[in-house]
Amino acid sequence: MTILPPLLELAADARPASQILSGLARDGYLTGVIVAPRPVPVLRWLAPLLADDDLLLADNRRFRAERDAILAQYTAIATAIDRHLARLEAERICDYRPSFWPGGAKPAHATIRRWASGFAAAMALVPDAWSALLEDARTEILVAPFVGFFDLNDPIFEPAEDFAQRLDEAAAFMPRAILVLRKLARMRATEDPAMDTRLVSGKVGRNDPCPCGSGTIYKRCCGTGLR
Q1: Which end of the chain has less Cβ packing within 10 Å, N or C?
Q2: What is the pLDDT of residue 207?
Q3: pLDDT for 40-73, tens place per residue?
Q4: Is there a contact between 4 and 60 (Cβ–Cβ < 8 Å)?
């Protein structure tokens, strides 16, 4: 079975509302799909990435090549996240770095914003699921660091004096948040209600073992970060 015919139709239909996602934005988009609190069907998230090029839509061979390249990138990102999540669980070490943080130096806020624009587009695919995380005190801290880098287009927004420092703190927490969001997504995908309910419903005590599986108590693991 091939996903090409329905994907071509969806891509054509998505053109008016689609946005071009490339480079860091595409990486952020795929990361957002991978860690989404509710699974996103592949046709739904893949079509917008292929919707803005008339020549691409008209050339099946090129369309297949681009589709396969996107799926390969998705797999590579997911594999890296899962590998680092396994290390976090086994060794309590978080050395994962998203693509906006390729080296040891602190990434520029503008660079993170480009990546976060794609992550925001992925969140828009299942907005109710992400809203549920933001509305819960226990999981809000996992999403808040990303929101700080979104372009809110609010003309009356006045950043605090320490806004840049807060963004630095948010960026430092984002790698760990990605891993924990992936953990939560995998628990939901395998229908493990015991741990999923604890994390989402806010029934994790501050001194309880963290649901991410790190072996650390909640207040010193996923219960830390931006407030």
Answers
A1: N
A2: 74
A3: 888 788 888 876 655 555 567 777 788 888 889 9
A4: yes
Please tell me the predicted confidence (pLDDT) of residue 134: 86
CA distance 55 to 63: 9
Token pair for 104:
């040891």
DSSP state, 208?
A: S
Contact by Cβ (8 Å): 205, 218: yes
- Residue 135 predicted with pLDDT over 70: yes
Where would I find the H helices in the chain? 4-14, 23-34, 42-46, 54-58, 60-91, 109-123, 127-135, 140-147, 163-189, 193-201
Partner residues linked to 217 by β-bridges:
209
Cα gap 111→93, rounded to integer Å: 25
Task: Tell me if the pTM is above 0.70.
Answer: yes
